[in-house]
Known about the structure:
Layout: E1 5-10, E2 14-23, E3 26-36, H1 51-67, E4 76-80, H2 82-86, H3 90-101, E5 106-107, H4 110-122, E6 133-138, E7 143-149, E8 152-159, H5 163-170, H6 178-193, H7 196-199, E9 206-210, H8 212-224, E10 231-232, H9 233-246, H10 259-262, H11 265-279, E11 283-286, H12 291-300
Parallel strand pairs: 1-4, 4-5, 6-9, 9-11
Antiparallel strand pairs: 1-2, 2-3, 6-7, 7-8, 10-11
Amino acid sequence: xxxxxxxxxxxxxxxxxxxxxxxxxxxxxxxxxxxxxxxxxxxxxxxxxxxxxxxxxxxxxxxxxxxxxxxxxxxxxxxxxxxxxxxxxxxxxxxxxxxxxxxxxxxxxxxxxxxxxxxxxxxxxxxxxxxxxxxxxxxxxxxxxxxxxxxxxxxxxxxxxxxxxxxxxxxxxxxxxxxxxxxxxxxxxxxxxxxxxxxxxxxxxxxxxxxxxxxxxxxxxxxxxxxxxxxxxxxxxxxxxxxxxxxxxxxxxxxxxxxxxxxxxxxxxxxxxxxxxxxxxxxxxxxxxxxxxxxxxxxxxx
Length: 302
């Protein structure tokens, strides 16, 4: 078995640490730690991360540093995504964060995030796809789309719309109305349609989804009896109906929905509906790979 590697993903919703090794070309996870930070919710009117959210983030990094204590620094990669791309005071935050974590933190571009998510997903599929695939990664403050084959990406792009920022904009008071969903879907669709030609259904043979929003909708669909396979338009319609019937996030009690997802799932659902409408998706398969997986493959050279 190869040497132990670790990746830290400082996402706009959650901070995640994963460590493990490769067995041949298969990555075996040995440790996983998730901290719900909601970095995207801590961007103030001035575009800066608030002091409160910075302190919360640093607390999570102290926990990660203890997990990493016995690892070689060169075997660890740490990256930041959309919330840190957008934060006006990101450089000041990194000057505090890097000594706490003990390794450098690299803020990656949206296109790089899309590429890594694609490679993590495509290289984790068994068997690996013969035809081009679409990979969707719905994060806290951005959504990444990519099309291609393992090692041969045709198109990759990032859009500044995710589960946290969409929820804050359209469902801030927790009200789950049909009007709010319509407005959220319209907003997200307008962004996706600008690059829709690159990711339309004619460009790929199957669609795969990565990250928390997609796995949450998949879990709810299975637990509620809406369907246990890929996410479909029917499943999204069932979810929308259930959300509107609940009327408020406080009353959203769906089987399979974790409490830490309840506050932000409405925004994620709206983004998914917009993706299905804008790109002509009929079904979305759940991917096991992720941005972190892509970084592990990159670090290993596989």
